[in-house]
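Hi C.,

You asked whether I'd gotten around to modeling the 159-residue construct. I have! Everything is below, sequence then structure, no commentary in between.
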Amino acid sequence: MFRFLSTCLAFLIVTTAQVGGVPPAPAIPGEAARIESMVNKAAALVEVRGKQAFPDFRRRGSEWRFNEVYLFVMDLGGRVLLNVEFPRREGTNRLKERDADGKLFHEDFIDVVRSDGSGWVDYMFPRPGQKHPSAKWSYVRAVTIDGEPGLIGAGFYAE
C-alpha cells in the first residue's frame, strides 16, 4: 500500500509541475547552477548601477558573456533593453513573438518573474550566428532597473 501511495504522490508532483506552466529546472544541474549564479550576480549589479551596468555585460570573454551564454534584459511590458548577442532586438517589444513551437516565451519570462520572482523557461531560439532555432533553457529573475520593474536572464542551449 505504501508503494502505491508513493507512486501516486510522485505522479501527482510531476504532473502538477508540468501542468502548472513552469517547467522544472533543466536536467543539467551544473550548468543550471552556473547560469543561476551569473544571473543573480548580474541582477545585484543592475539593482545598484541600473543600465550603467550594461556595457560590462557586452564584453566577450567576461564572466557575463562566454561561449554561447549571454545576458538579456527586458522590462515587464515586453521591451528588450539588452540582448548582447542579438542587439537588433534592443528597443523592440517582443510580447507577441512565438518560437518555432508556437510558444509565447517572452510572456513566460514575465509570468515566471511575476509569480515566483525567478525560474526557468524552455523554448526554441537560434544560437548566436545561426538562423535556425535550437532548444534553449533560460533562467530569468525579477530586477529593478533604474527604478522600473524588469527581468534579467541568461540561458544555455540544450542541444
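If it helps when you're writing up: The first strand starts at residue 71 and ends at 75.

Thanks,
B.
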